[in-house]
Amino acid sequence: MKNDSLLNFSVARRFSAPLKRMKKFASAGFVVALLCGAASIQPLRAPSESDPENRNTGANMKIVVTSVMVNDQDKALKFYTEVLGFVKKMDIPMGGPRWLTVVSPEQPDGPELLLEPMSFAPAKTYQKALFDAGIPLTSFAVEDIEATYQKLKKQGVVFRANPTKMGPVTVATFDDTCGNLIQIAQK
To answer: Please, which residues have CB within 8 angstroms of residue 47's CB and are 6 or more apart in sequence?
Structure first.
């Protein structure tokens, strides 16, 4: 249920909801979503298996690989492993760019983060638009946001947003040196 809060924060941020108003609704236990210009405010609750959209149809899915677009794979690998603490999982030559993934050391067989090279022009436009608007590309969970924030700052990581309470989560946003803003969040 708390993961919904991160998703709804991202949705609201992408559609420029006033931060003060969004915080007010989030702290009151509501989900705020803006779709096609129409606001939808719903009580925050965990999905139930009995909800029609959550009934198992025999096709269970899970995230195996997700990606961040990077402008330099070597620089990204160094930042994501040496600074953020991820571990390299795959490094497969593909005739130029590589299939290069990292994983959390706590979940070596968990979801892989693909450090995806920026060879597609529209992807570059998308990445720059998100960055210029101050919108994080993705979010990573941390156990102690204040300790993580202090550790990363000591390593020279540039933060765009210091730890800030947003309803049931605390978030901070930093520059990954590869063209992205990344959010860390603690429930």
So the answer is: 1, 53, 54
